[in-house]
Predict the structure.
Amino acid sequence: MTVTLYDVAYWLSSHLVALATGTSASNLPGGPWTTAAVALAWLVTGIIVFAASLVNTLILIWWERKLLGRFMDRRGAMHVGFAGLLQNLADGLKLFRKQVFSPREADQFGYYLAPTAYMVTSIILLGFLPVSTGFVGGSVPLSLLLALAIFSFAPLFIFVGSWSSNNKYSLIGGMRTAAQLVAYEIPLLLAVVSVVLLTGSFDLTTIVMDQARYGWFWLPLILGLVVFSVAMLAEMERIPFDLPEAEAELVEGWSTEYGGMLFAMTMLGDYVRGLVGSYLIVLLFLGGWTLPGPLAPLAAFPLGGIVWFQIKTYLVFGVFIWVRAALPRVRTDQLLQVGWKRMLPLSLANIVIAAALVVWGWPHLTWPAL
Amino acid sequence: MKAEEVVPRLQAEFPSAVQSVALRPGVLARLEVDPGSIVPIARWLRDQATFCHCSMVGGVDWVERREVLYLLWSDEFRTYLEISAWVPGEDPHIDSVSGVWRGAIWHERETWDLVGIRFVGHPDLRRVFLPEGYEFHPLLKSMELHEPEELEVKRRHV
Amino acid sequence: MSEMWVNMGPQHPMTHGLWNLRVKIDGEVIVDADPEMGFLHRGIEKICEYRRYNEVVTLMDRTCYVAGLSWEHVYLMAVEQALGVSVPARAEYIRVMSHELQRLASHIMWYAAFVQDIGLMTPFLYGMRDRDLILDLLQSYTGARMTYEYMRVGGVRNDVPVGFTDRCRKVMDWLEEKIHDYEALCDRSDIFLKRTVGLGILKAKECLDLGVTGPMLRAAGVPRDLRRDHPYSAYPELDFVIPTHDGADVYGRYRVRMEEMRQSIAIVRQTLEWLDHHPGRVLAEKVPRFVGTPTPPPGRESYILRRGYPKGRGFAAIEEPHGEALAYVINEGAEHPYRVKFRSPVMVNIAAAKDYLVGYRVSDIPPIMGSVDICVGESDR
């Protein structure tokens, strides 16, 4: 059992409570005091995860702007902070200062609920994705399953938001999102199944450890990696699959009616989902925070795992940015065709490969150490 | 048919409708025709003389009467033909040629909008640029240019 | 799902301007379309009647904000015919060169906006980058980047500066290379082909019936180009071909415009060669000047011939980047034109929207309307 962020926070809070009540931390008086310690621990964990996700998102957007700028023969953000690093913070503050409003005809509850819930569910995901050994918000045995379950909440809230905006473009965007996410949820999950077959565990830490031991999964499951990445691209609603917010035809898709901080929340949700998608690809197929073969000791430094994990994540996201710079947007029917007619068979083939590997005694097959 | 035969044959076909013929640079000829027979002339020009493209329909206000201008293009002769028809200033109207060239629909709408010439038999004679329900036809000479705030523009019906 | 009308515009990213495309959709399929214009109507034809002939040139830049010089050209050709002014050969060549540079700038702008419509962001910025070079060129001899006010009755305002031709040649070389890049980014992309081939089909017969002109017509296989078919200015002496395509679809229009850019580069090179060897005047010596009151007295009296120009009518047609542009000028002898009438190719091309939109999907509207090359300033005037 690894030590998680929550465990550390609880250790701290229980000592604080013990100090306050004059007992020992291992033997709290119970009742409201214990509850207070647990609540404090959760609060601290939540704040850390929230701050980490914000910082990560800011860097991710910066990375996207810089890289996209280079692809486009320009420089990207460059004036605020070193190399424009603080530009996104400035943009966020600007949005934060704006008036919060809702259209008169909109359904107020749904209108405000949707971006909030969209952002919150996205950030919750970061709470139990391990970024290094022990660096995880809370330890959940079935973390992969839970992550994917929460990941698929988004279309619901998008649909709520699009419907309550009372705008035709929002509605069309919302319906497209629903169709798209349903179509790509299945290949996504089937691609994950192959990884689960090989490890026999839904715990992400175990999956990473297995990869460190037996070789990264991208090699045996290359098909799965492709399917998972393409499906993730669709789940993130990025070009070429950004139909729900195809700005040329639907103005801004389901978030057309949102402005100011509400828009910033949808944007934040988008990028956190992008981050989570890249995390999952790294965790499931690219060895997580470990390094292959002779480089492995480099990841063993204190915090070394986090560094490698982040570098891998940004590289994976860089590929998505590259795709965005190079490809146009597909059409709805073409998107669904790709989803059902190409991705689904490919992911099934991938499962067959994984099953065959397991039948041949996968963990003990001596794959060349990568 | 050759380009120079078009006008004589048109005159032979419609002896009373073609009122005058003038030669001008840039176009094959400038014909002034009877507004009542514009549609048969247009159809003849399209079918017999290959003027397949109605390039422009326009109107000019000459205060006591108005002029409707048609510019036709023939891919075969590679030239324009200018046709003008004079309509009275009171209730100016002329038959629509939108049945001959569908491209004339919007030109005629524009002419109605700006010069106030009504096209009889037009399928969809709405304003193009100005709001529906606007009382004026701005290119009439009776309309003087005003400063914008002096005109009371009705809210566009949405 | 029941049918519903959707207003795409007047402020919508697809419109590239200020107009409204009302489409009736059944789910994602378009069943009816009704373009609505006039949001940018400034009454240019009316204002022209209150301006002296040279002053109208200012308005012509505002007519089409991506191809101002083309409109200056067509208006002045009509005016010169109406007033009986002849233009020096060097001025004609400079006009043709400006016109072709403007066509290049317009087509690059179109390309940038078009690929942006189907989600390609990189070529958009490539296009804007290269268009800037052309604007720099235009700025070097007209003094402006968008509203040039460069041509005059009887010629052009000033000659090109020293060293301009060499600079221009360099830019043309650069552009020729970059057009390959543009094509590589689009033609080799399967998604791009899927989004453009077979979309927005408007066959030659319908094009002729609807009066659609320009690259849309040539993409339907009709090789009509007024530069060759109704030659004007210096075009009879220049050598170029008219690109056509058989697809009659969005992809065909894209191909035609790409080839036209190459032809424009060739034309510019020829005019540069000519300009190098033929110095001379750029403004006619004898331009009739009217000495009168600057503002007309109220009523019709202002249009009565007092002194100055002989009466006359002028008519000119050019191949503008968007299609066939006509100007019709009636000169009643006053210092102001009696009536100026323009034919905007964009208005006619938009007006045909129903014919090339019905049956396609909502997602196809941006590429299809993008392939029309819309400049609302020109269609609304």
Remarks:
- The first helix of chain C runs from residue 44 to 48.
- Strands of chain C lie at 3-8, 20-26, 29-36, 151-152, 155-156, 312-320, 323-331, 339-343.
- Chain C has one domain: 46-153+160-344.
- The CA atoms of residues 54 and 136 of chain C lie 25 Å apart.
